[in-house]
TrEMBL record:
It comes from Glossina palpalis gambiensis. Its cofactor is Mg(2+). GO terms for molecular function: metal ion binding; nucleotidyltransferase activity; tRNA binding. PANTHER family: CCA TRNA NUCLEOTIDYLTRANSFERASE 1, MITOCHONDRIAL (PTHR46173). This is Poly A polymerase head domain-containing protein. One of its GO terms (cellular component) is mitochondrion.
Length: 60
């Protein structure tokens, strides 16, 4: 699937080294991690990110 957002600077900019480490942990244990809240909206509106919220299938 092609989307203009996949490689956009708005999407790429949220993937800091710290976030990549967190994503790696969730993947290691087969949990899903999804962008939630205002970050998704801001990406679509091409607004610079100030923070990212996530939803997950992992139990608290």
């Amino acid at each position: 699937m092609h989307t203009k957002w996949k490689n956009s600077i708005e999407v790429i900019s949220i993937f800091t080294d710290e976030l990549k480490a967190v994503v790696g942990i969730f993947c290691k244990y087969n949990y899903e991690l999804c962008v939630a809240g205002g970050a998704g909206r801001d990406i679509l509106m091409e607004i610079t990110q100030k923070g990212v919220d996530f939803g997950t299938t992992a139990a608290p």
